[in-house]
Amino acid sequence: MSLTPLPSHVKLQLGDARSLKGGLGLSRRSTGSSRPCFTGPAIPGAAPFLAAPLGRWTLRAGRRPGMEGVPIFNQLREMWRRKLKLCAVLSVLMATLWLWQGYQGWTNLSTFNATQPWYRRLPGSTAIESWLLGTHPVVMAHGHALAVTKSTLQRDFAMDTRLVDEGQLHRLLTACFLHNSVFHILFNLGYLYTVAPLEVGCRGAFLSTFLISGIVGNLAFLHFGEARYAVGASGGLCGLIGFELVSLLRSRKVREFKVLLRSTFGMLIMGLFLPGCANTCHVGGLLCGFAVALLVARRSGYRAPLLPWPFLLALLALMPFGRRFLSALMQALLVAFQHPGALGRGYVI
Questions:
Q1: What is the DSSP letter of 196?
Q2: Please, which residues bridge with residue 305 across strands?
Q3: What are phi and psi of 89, to 5 degrees?
Q4: Residue of 313, 283, 262 lying closest to 218 (CA atoms)
Q5: Fewer C-beta neighbours within 10 Å, C or N terminus of the chain?
Q6: What are the residue ranges spanned by the domains of the chain?
Q7: How far apart (Å, rounded) are the C-alpha atoms in residues 165 and 146?
Q8: pTM of the prediction?
Q9: CA angle at residue 96 from 201 to 286, to 5 degrees?
Q10: Quick check: 32 and 53 in contact, CB under 8 A?
Q11: Measured between alpha carbons, how far is residue 178 from residues 107, 153, 237, 245, 272 in Å?
């Protein structure tokens, strides 16, 4: 049997053949063809607002697949390259805490099953389902209702209106770094990637606005919310959006202001229809961002604050509520390190 030589436009190099082994397409550079290259599928099942910030899984022939093919890793690398280091650190911190929540939920379930007879034990898949979807089954143990798959981090640091009223003020801030499900954290990481360019002007202003708006958003949830529990960075992110809205209006960038205003309005309307969405926290954070921008920012926005950010934070820390909050935060971190789970059981600070 004779072999017919392949035409020049379909010849492949050795590296391309290895790449094709995994089923990847060919780029124009490797084939010489005029057809556009195949960059792989978009994120399966992702909504448009998630696909845009998280990007696409891009692998071409001739490249060995590695971490550069992971969408979130690509965005972190891009933020680091653009010197948006604070946003990159916040993203890694939130993702790490969410992974730790999943591990703690599985550990708590294993501990519960070890103390129960075989017919009352829950399958291990329950912990994975609770971690991904945020559904925590409640069982009766020693006469008390207990969500066995809830992580110790959530019990000690999530927003709990009853425990905050009892003095655990640290939850107003720590709840901003925890999330309830995979969709929740992906949505917030996507929004964090969207507002990341605001860090370019001043990291101090960006971080201060995020923290203050997160606390005020949780205070709004405490006084006006209808639920007891809440987690998420939405309040701080809405505060950054509110700050930017004022900065754009002062800079007379009307077109950019209208685009951002429509996007913010759509987000708030969507929050009214999503089940379990703490829209009061979003509104509180947004209004706080407005107030901070009106009080301390010049027309140039983040680049030239009227009041130095370290002085502003020191002023807030010296107020009576600020002193009580910092004291409660330091004590809570110490107690959580020495006795994990004690804060969730109602430890009085």
A1: G
A2: 297
A3: -65, -40
A4: 283
A5: N
A6: 152-338
A7: 21
A8: 0.77
A9: 45
A10: no
A11: 18, 8, 14, 26, 22
pLDDT digits (tens, 9 = 90+) for 111-134: 999 988 888 889 989 999 999 999
Q: Count CB-CB contacts under 10 A for residue 283.
A: 19
Angle between helices 203-224 and 234-250 in degrees, nearest 10: 120
DSSP H stretches of helix in 225-319: 234-250, 254-273, 279-296, 309-318
- DSSP class per residue in 119-165: GGPPPTHHHHHHHHH----EEEETTEEEETTS-HHHHHHSEEHHHHH
For 44-75, what is each residue's pLDDT tens digit? 333 333 344 434 333 333 444 445 555 677 88
Reduced to 3 states (helix: H, G, I; strand: E, B; else coil), residue 303 is: strand
CA 56/CA 74 separation, integer angstroms = 9
What is the C-alpha separation between 9 and 11, in angstroms, rounded? Answer: 6
- What Cα–Cα distance (Å) separates residue 333 from each residue in 95, 100, 174? 20, 16, 10
Bridge partners (DSSP) listed for residue 145: 140
Q: What is the CATH number of domain 152-338?
A: 1.20.1540.10
**Residue 48, CB-side half-sphere exposure with 13 Å CA sphere:** 0
Distance CA 257, CA 91 (A): 26
Chain centre to alpha carbon of residue 229:
17
Which structure tokens are listed for 23? Answer: 């089923």
CA atoms within 13 A on the CB side of 52: 8
- Output the average pLDDT for the chain: 79
**Exposed/middle/buried for 183, CB within 10 Å: 0-12, 13-18, 19+?**
middle
Helix (H, G, I), strand (E, B) or coil at 336: helix
